[in-house]
Amino acid sequence: MTGPVTVAHRAPLRDRGIALGLGAAVAYGALTQGAFYGAGTMLLFLAAAAALRVTVRGRRPGPGITAACACLVGFGLWALVSGYLAGDAPAAVPTAVLAVAAAAVAMSASGLPERARRVLVGVVVAVAVVVAVSGWLGVALHLDPLALPSAGLWRAASTLTYANATAALLVVGLVLVATRPSTGHAPDPVTAVLLVGLVATMSRAGLLALLVACGVHLAVTRRTELPRRIAAALPAAVPTLAGLLPGLPDGAPAHPLAALAGAAAGLAVLVLSRRGAVAGLVAAAVVTTALVMATLLAAPSVADAARAVGTDRVSASSAERADLARATAERFTTAPLAGVGPGQLDLHYVDHNGVPVRAGYTHDEFLQTAAETGVVGLAAVLAALLALAAAALRGRTRDGAAAVALLAAFAVHSAFDFLWHVPVLPLLVVLVVTVLTPHHPSERSTCEEPSQDHHRGRPRGRVERSPGLVRWRRERCPRPRAAEPARG
Q1: Using an 8 Å Cβ cutoff, are 391 and 206 in contact?
Q2: Rounded to an integer, what distance in angstroms lies between the CA atom of residue 118 and that of residue 59?
Q3: Phi/psi of residue 473, nearest 5 degrees
């Protein structure tokens, strides 16, 4: 009896250790500029989680996750080969390490039990809330580097110190929160907070990624769950964002009182909407927004902020990005098969204004990957993304649909920003997609255990566990019928 009990108690400890290592890595990376400057500590957490995962027997990842891991490891090896052929193999080491780390994350997170998966999802959502609040504070108080002026506006940069990276992380958090099971139609406070943080980044690609996530989720599930829940949070988000308007223009002083008033109005909308009156919700949203806007119109900077937003952010074109894409495409043609080597994309070009420019990032990860590692490297990355998407769609579950939606959103956003160069972002996406991906049918385990209701005197049932799905089936057994009263 001692042996089986000891083994049964070791498994939950290992799972907790894996979840702790993965969660600590995500939290550390998000709070330290995305681990952009030195990812050693984050990689240590991931290594610890991977080491514990190796000790787990009888729990193999599904074929889709295995294929994705193989593609990621293959890409890492090819990055080293590409760097060697370009004459600077050490420059390719960070890219190779990141690819192998992503594969280790997928292997570590695959097959975790329901409780460990919920802990990881909770950690990711909590990190997203911290990032959103820090970005809002940065814009409200002009706190550098939590907010940074860009294109004439103060944009939320959060603890990642980069607005577009902040937007990418918040989109992941929004998809996780807005697709979880819920009852009622009242706006979710966490969704409202994350939506405020996303809009405060002023990231056009981030908003586009959110729209893509909504569209993909709608196409997979045939339900309007994700866009409906995000739309339900708008009445609370609008007055909160209106409070940031006076301090948005670069050069304008911070307006913390206006920001606080907007946040209070948004909170009031949330509180009133919890009472269940739809008319009261709409009235509260209209009244609070009108009050905030009437107060802010006295500030001359509000008109400047609206003008700056309309001029720079409400536009689908970017001459600077077009110049970068043109210069990167020219470098790709010089070595289309093996690339110029990871970390060696040093662009020198003349922009549309005739000014000489030097840059190292294309703001298009697919194009930059093709230029640095050639078509071979790009094919490996695309194969990994397709394998993850196929694995998520295999089970046709709620979690699988959310995984495909956020994977599509991240892929679209990666075509407009250098997100893969912020280590925490690709590792986070791989982690969340793997956690949400259902098991392969052959790996679904069924065990006879007493359910939670067994301690309350209810009959024992069968618990079926698989990622994204926990079902309890009551055993069918004959029940004694009550004695009928004697007749006559």
Answers
A1: no
A2: 18
A3: -115, 125
Q: Distance between CA atoms of 254 and 141, rounded to whole angstroms?
A: 5
Q: Is residue 170 within 8 Å of 128, Cβ to Cβ?
A: yes
Residue 420's pLDDT is what?
93
Phi, psi for 470 (deg, rounded to 5): -130, 115
Cα angle: 44, vertex 108, 114; to 5 degrees: 125
DSSP-based three-state secondary structure for 113: coil
Phi-psi region of 111 (alpha: psi -120 to 50; beta: other; left: phi over 0): left
Integer angstrom CA distances of residue 466 from 275, 397, 470: 36, 11, 6
Q: Is 96 within 8 Å of 77 (Cβ atoms)?
A: yes
Please give the radius of gyration of the chain, using alpha carbons only, rounded to the nearest integer. 25
Three-state DSSP at 344 gives coil
Q: How many CB atoms lie within 10 A of CB 334?
A: 9
**Residue 457 exposure: Cα atoms within 13 Å on the Cβ side:** 0
Contact 18, 116 (CB under 8 A): yes
Nearest to 361, CA basis, from 162, 101, 139: 162
Spatial distance between the Cα atoms of 230 and 444, rounded to a whole number of angstroms:
33
Distance CA 266, CA 241 (A): 9
DSSP characters over 96-124:
HHHHHHHHHHHHHHTT--HHHHHHHHHHH
pLDDT tens-digit map of 25-74? 889 889 888 888 766 667 777 776 777 777 666 567 888 899 999 999 99
Read off the pLDDT band of 303 (50, 70, 90). low
Kindly report the pTM of this predicted structure: 0.83
User: Strand runs (DSSP E) across 45-190, as ranges?
Assistant: 147-150, 153-156
pLDDT in tens, 270-287: 877 766 555 555 655 665
Report the 10 Å Cβ neighbour count for 34.
27
Identify the DSSP state of 148.
Answer: E
Q: Confidence band (pLDDT; 50, 70, 90) for 475? A: very low
